[in-house]
Amino acid sequence: MNNTPVRLAPCLPILCGLLNGACQASASSTPAFDTGSDDGGSSDDASAAPAADATEMPGADGAATADVTGSSILDGPVASAEDATTADSATAASDAGSATGGDATFSKDGAAADATATDASAASPFKGVAGSDCAELPTLNLSWWYDWETGPTGCTSTPFVPMIWGHTSEQTAAGITGEVSAAVAAGYKYVLGFNEPDNASQSSIPVATAISLWPSFNNPAVVVGSPATQGNATGLAWIQSFMSQVNADATGKLRVDFIATHWYGWDSGACDPAANTLQSWIEGIEAIPGNRPIWLTEWGCMNQSNPSAAAVQAFYAGALAMFAKHPRLVRYAWYQWNTYNELVNVDGGALTPLGAAYSSAPAFH
All domains of the chain, ordered by start, with CATH? Predict the structure, then answer.
């Protein structure tokens, strides 16, 4: 049985048990993991119409354990030249564990800016993907990926980032502490927090509950990402409330090293060639106090925002240009399981035009 929710897209049949290793999905199928419904931030109305392209089902309560054998280890957090410049004018926290609030200086991937000179010259992972067939990962020229689980189910070609999704077993202090410890034992250096806690069809965790559980993420061996909310008014209100309490914490137990977020275009024109609507969402996340790095861990175009494959490809090109104006946006992972968002063709596994553009884009920065 699958342990994560499923998104069912029209004309995309479900293949069996991806996350239990029985088989892998291709771009011709819906992945056996999920994102969550999202009106994409294209409207401030959190009550936007339900998704026409996707129906979601909550997953089972059990959470997968970390896949220790064969897990790729993600390169450690490093600082870029811009971070080194910032560090000259600000006092950096001594380690990632001390950066809980205020305007601390962070490196590219979320650790406090205490990198050595050697680290500062290194490239940082940038382009990833939210779920994919294992065989497709090298073709897409990625520097990282995740699949809403704690382990990559034996897929080791590309560095993996585990997620504590927020299943019932992951809504206890002991459950979270155990899974974070397992991630550390497997060699992972980053952990993503709850998946869409603002969404009733996803982890559905109130802010107060998330705050009460958050000290369990505070393992000094990993860089910790915030819960990733929907890219709409509901999601923004949730993450603002959560982060305000993190920033006000004086105990040092509520640590968030980077903010993870989702965004999907929804209304007509939301996935415009200049990516203006997406940029507005990123600016809203940037406005959260703390000056933390941002990971865009799900994004794409849905409903009326994706009238054609060419429109989505133009949006992606515009988004890359826009990202260059937002240095705090340090990682992104495309969600390809919607119409015209596919990176790989149904027939033969060849890259779509969007997939070719995606593959050609820089994997590191």
Answer: 64-360 (3.20.20.80)
CA distance 295 to 193: 12
Q: Please check the confidence at residue 48 and state whether its pLDDT lies above 80.
A: no
Distance CA 205, CA 207 (A): 6
CB of 89 closer than 8 Å to CB of 36: no
Q: Which of 91-95, 183-187, 305-309 has the lowest mean pLDDT?
A: 91-95
Work out the pLDDT band at 155, boundaries 50, 70, 90: very high
Name residue 129's beta-bridge partners.
334
What is the CB-side half-sphere exposure of residue 107 using CA atoms within 13 A?
27
Supply the pLDDT for residue 153.
86
Counting every residue written for the chain, the total comes to: 365
Q: Where are the extended beta strands (E) located within 28-93?
A: 55-57
Residue 77, classified by CB atoms within 10 Å of its CB into exposed (0-12), middle (13-18) or buried (19+), is buried
Question: What are the respective helix, strand and coil percentages of the chain, to the nearest 5?
Answer: 30, 15, 60
Of residues 146, 181, 358, 355, the one with CA closest to residue 262? 146
Only one residue has tokens 């060639």, namely 273
- Tokens 């849905």 appear where? 302
**Mean pLDDT, range 151-160, rounded to an integer:** 93
Q: Does the global pTM surpass 0.85?
A: no
| Tokens matching residue 26 | 């291709």
